[in-house]
Amino acid sequence: MSARTVCSLRKGEKGVIKSFTNREMSLKLLEMGCLPGSEVRLDAIAPFGDPICINVGGCYSLSLRLNEAAVIELE
């Protein structure tokens, strides 16, 4: 069974960040405030599916490419 990631969320669905699958990308995501334990909600999807917009911790919105979102594993 594969881990659930942010890119697998449906619009309006929530998840809690568990870990990251890519070390280099994890540093970038951590700097943008995607911290383990933070709740994320998928708010919007671009017309062609990439990028997506997530809400992090109920505080701010963040736009991510699908390859970036695929690195964020959820609980």
Automatic annotation (TrEMBL):
PANTHER family: FE(2+) TRANSPORT PROTEIN A. Residues 4-75 form the Ferrous iron transporter FeoA-like domain. SMART domains: FeoA. Keywords: Iron. It comes from the Bacteria. GO terms for molecular function: transition metal ion binding. It comes from Dyadobacter flavalbus. This is Ferrous iron transport protein A.
